[in-house]
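Lab notebook, page 48
Experiment: co-folding of the full assembly
Goal: obtain a model of how the components sit together before planning crosslinking
Operator: M.T.
Materials (sequences as entered):
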Amino acid sequence: MTGESADFWHVMSTARTIRRFTPEPVPDNVIHRCLEAATWAPSGANAQCWRFIVLRSAQQRAVVAQAAAQALAVIEPVYRMARPPADDSSARARSYRAIYDLHDHAGEHPSVLFVQQKLPATTELVLGGSIFPAMQNFLLAARAQGLGACPTSWTSYGGEVLLRDAVGVPDDWLLAGHVMFGWPRGSHGSVRRHSVDQVVDIDHWNGDRTTSLDRASAERQSEHQQR
Amino acid sequence: MTGESADFWHVMSTARTIRRFTPEPVPDNVIHRCLEAATWAPSGANAQCWRFIVLRSAQQRAVVAQAAAQALAVIEPVYRMARPPADDSSARARSYRAIYDLHDHAGEHPSVLFVQQKLPATTELVLGGSIFPAMQNFLLAARAQGLGACPTSWTSYGGEVLLRDAVGVPDDWLLAGHVMFGWPRGSHGSVRRHSVDQVVDIDHWNGDRTTSLDRASAERQSEHQQR
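Observation: model returned without errors.
Model output:
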């Protein structure tokens, strides 16, 4: 399969989020290896109070598509995002088109839910530390096999209720993560990230750095002042 | 370096939690590769609103040791855990000894904090999805280099205040995760986990499974009834 790699550092550094997939089905053994890799992740006290739920029937894919549409309606105003005109070839337009494609075609591909049992006297943040490593292992194992994958936030917003009902997840389990996957249209390039120097501190907090959020806040404040 | 591997599947399946480290220092370039791998992780909207803070000065290691001692005092009653007698060679005693060793020697090794900026209108669980994948990449890159590592919960309990103050982390950033690391005493074996069949469902929730938490609850209930 094109794009397959067993080189650890190559896989890690090229595990880009893929938002467009071909119609070619993903064989069970490929999905199985991703799920097995997910089970290899650490969890608090090695308790493994997790479930990985593959959504692939036409019925469940339709629910995923509905959750995607709801999420899109929520994030469009947040990111001030709209469908770009056909003649816009800017980087932002290309990125937005990929996001719209992911949401528009959500019902055509399989996906997996990462579900974590609630534990007494533990915060949701701490519980996240026991389930998102499994999601990351899944994403990396997908990349190693040449598969494309994209974590979504469709278990938030209105999608949580839809997916919880459709799958039958009990109230004492958290829908923590969700990943769409399929064979990629296009290829896996290197990830684009801030450098180590930009995000690592030694022993003490460096207050002089700015993050994407800081910059967005500053922009909003500046726009507000110009009104 | 012994235990080093660049084979993706071998690294993933042997990334066991290591709780005992040799006194040999970890070179900067080895730490750098772990941190770089952390930056390769996905985050919501690729915003990378994260900081990775290496704690290695004697002063900060002393704070980590204090956080470890506090965490130990909290978890001992939760897990009904006590220091095993010297002649106890059971699996549980060996496991407990490793946990005590980790906490007792916490001040002797470097560690890293995974810190995530709070975002408006986003839950802590969702934010966890933007920082714990980076922690998992760090753990895997440590394993690939033959390094041992152990995620801790010392940023919870009383440790959060101690570490936040010592490092100077602002209130609008979450101390999400913390990892101790060093050269392992002993070797990396295969991880021990439930099989895929035990934790994966297809399309619908299977209510017949039991988790570690279910079993612990059942045991407590049974003990309670016997009183």
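Interpretation: The radius of gyration of chain B is 19 Å.
Next step: discuss with group before ordering constructs.
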